[in-house]
Amino acid sequence: MAKIKQIVECVPNFSEGRDMNVIRQITDEIEGVKGVKLLDVDPGEATNRTVVTFVGEPADVVEAAFRAVKKAGQLIDMRQHHGAHPRIGATDVLPIVPVSGITLEECAEIARKLAKRIADELSVPCYCYEAAALKPERKNLAICRKGEYEGLAERVNDEKEAPDFGARPFDEQVARTGCTVVGARDFLIAVNFNLNTTSTRRANAIAFDVREKGRQMREGNPIVGKKLFDADGNPVMKPGTLKGTKAIGWYIDEYGIAQVSMNITDINVTPLHKAFDEVCRCAQNRGVRVTGTEIVGLVPERTLIEAGRYFLAKQQRSAGIPKKDILDIAIKSLGLSDLKEFKPEEKIIEYVMAENAEKQHLLVDMSVKGFAEETSRESPAPGGGSVSAYMGALGASLATMVANLSSHKPGWDAQWSEFASVAEAGMSLQERLLHLVDEDTEAFNRIMAAFGMPKNTPEEKAARSEAIQKATLFAAEVPLETMKASFEVFDVCRKMVETGNPNSVSDAGVGALAARAAVLGAGMNVKINAGSLKDREKAEALINEANQLIAKANSVEAEITKLVEAKL
């Protein structure tokens, strides 16, 4: 409950880059799955390979990927395929990538299940790589592709080399489709750093300073000296400063500037903001300045939120502010609008998806007046549950305001980090409770939908009764979640009453009053819905938990009010 929507990216590579009719049929399968957004189709003639990128919720993405693999297997005959890029199948590689609300480990499990399904239902043998690898050595994609398609006949019959799913003798079916490598990896960010120079040489030098591979070492003069090799004849390299990055320098005619072009392959080790700062440092050391950043393709929201938080911390400013404000800081700090205006709705994956999704009419998107008017109408929703969640959110907002005022109060600089931490906690609670405003109305809608189910046969009656009970339980659990989140608001309020800006102590006190009203109001909704549950043991447990929270809320609010009164 109150969970962030899970979004994943899928980047399958298909062994066809010349026949647009084939490519279009494959991408049509992807676009035919509701909830999936096709972001990019990049065919390559020389490689005879097309890289496709699409996003959506995990179940939708898995279905789209499966259909694409099926269609590719029907249209692409690997016996006739030739191209410059390594490959082992019609669908060569298929990674699942976490975007938001989901971990890499969860993506790995999804990838393994998808690989098994492809093997079982399509008879396409599958290897698992990177985070989804079932054998340590197969984390490396090159190991999974060893010998490429031409080596499959020997590999699939070798117990040690056989695919993870769908292993069988090399027959006509396998000869046609080849194998597929399914895996999970972290998000890759393609980014260009703009330089105030036209020199490709300078841009390359900066790229070699920072990229993980670094540059080859030389005897004497680091530029024209003799290149150094080890005993095995391999180049001796001086590593760069940024792990998980690849980079080169180039000149862009369109802009009339040189850039450091970088792929960040591990954003957990090297986030975008870290890469930016390091490129800036190395550029300055060579008499060059970074003027801005160009993101190629799309990025997850978290990438820019992390950047905004980072730059705010450098300024000793609180990040306990709305996401929009944090994004604005990131955009300005990274210089994302240096070459052309950076539009979050066009460059952030979650926002692109939201823009193309069916428009939701959310209560939290209404004006204050609109919300009040909607509540007053004869419809029973929104009702007390939604209003309680909103009161809790307002309580969290007030406490957060006091924390931010305290963090930025002149003369209190030594305490800014402490107050900023409180503000971030308050903002997190505000977001949880605002989600619950609409979640409570959704709970009511589920009950009404259940009551609207047919009841003409014994089977229909049983299904209807079960649906009503499930919906009623959900309708009791949602306000209980509101109670728990609202109770946490007290901690933020108390801290700000005790240590926050004394000029705003009354605001923290009002926040505590709002939190108490939220707990008590949501508690009423727990009780009225629990009363309709047939499972009385579960009902009593919900009511008891609600009563305990109500008693504690009354006690804590009284304590906080007493503290406030003493300071007025």
What can you tell me about this protein's structure?
This protein is an alpha+beta fold. The protein folds into three domains: 178 residues, Formiminotransferase, N-terminal subdomain (Formiminotransferase-cyclodeaminase, Chain B, domain 1, 2-Layer Sandwich); 167 residues, Alpha-Beta Plaits (2-Layer Sandwich), CATH 3.30.70.670; 205 residues, Four Helix Bundle (Hemerythrin (Met), subunit A) (Up-down Bundle), CATH 1.20.120. Helices cover 52% and strands 13% of the residues. It has 18 helices and 13 strands. The strands form three sheets. Strands 1, 2, 3, 4, 5, 6 and 7 form a seven-stranded mixed sheet that branches. Strands 11-12-8-13 form a four-stranded antiparallel sheet. A hairpin with a 4-residue loop joins strand 3 and strand 4. Helix 15 runs antiparallel to helix 16. The two termini are 39 Å apart. The mean pLDDT is 92.
Describe how the helices and strands are arranged.
Layout: E1 7-10, E2 13-14, H1 20-31, E3 37-44, E4 49-56, H2 58-75, E5 91-100, H3 104-122, E6 126-130, H4 141-144, H5 152-155, H6 172-177, E7 180-184, E8 189-195, H7 200-210, E9 215-216, E10 237-238, E11 245-252, E12 257-264, H8 272-285, E13 290-296, H9 301-314, H10 323-334, H11 344-347, H12 349-356, H13 368-376, H14 384-407, H15 416-451, H16 458-499, H17 505-530, H18 536-567
Parallel strand pairs: 5-7, 6-7
Antiparallel strand pairs: 1-4, 1-5, 2-4, 2-5, 3-4, 8-12, 8-13, 9-10, 11-12
Helix pairs in contact: 1-2, 2-3, 7-8, 9-10, 14-15, 14-16, 14-17, 15-16, 16-17, 16-18, 17-18
